[in-house]
Amino acid sequence: VLEDGDWRTIGDVTLARHSLPIVIGEAAYRARGIGGKVLDLLVARARTLGWSHLHVKRVYAYNEPSRKLFLSRGFRPVASSTAVRGESSCLQYELEL
Q1: How are the residues of the chain apportioned to helix, strand and coil, as percentages rounded to the nearest 5?
Q2: Is 86 in a helix, a strand, or coil?
Q3: Predicted TM-score (pTM) of this structure
Q4: What φ, ψ does residue 2 adopt, rounded to 5°?
Q5: Helix count (H) and strand count (E) of the chain?
Q6: Separation CA 66–CA 22 (nearest Å)
Q7: Per DSSP, which regions of the chain are E strands?
Q8: Helix (H, G, I), strand (E, B) or coil at 5
Q9: Is 28 helix (H, G, I), strand (E, B) or coil?
Q10: Residue 35: CB partners within 8 Å, gap ≥ 6?
Q11: DSSP 53
């Protein structure tokens, strides 16, 4: 984000065909539409690259804001699994471009 004329890192994102992690690490910036803007840019870039699909490997089932974000952008759930340590279930999403 741009604050007082300086850019400040508040999270992390990766664009890969089979992984699309988006993390807004600073709680004060969550639920402000930033994740949606970032996801829109990533989808547009993937289309420019000629990709046919995007996959999201792991969204924890309890992370309702993340689930809603991907669904709002047209991703559909394609699988569910138990997390590595077995403490929570996860969902996988896919978007056909």
Answers
A1: 30, 35, 35
A2: coil
A3: 0.86
A4: -95, 115
A5: 2, 7
A6: 9
A7: 2-3, 6-7, 11-13, 22-24, 53-60, 76-82, 89-96
A8: coil
A9: helix
A10: 22, 24, 65, 66, 69
A11: E
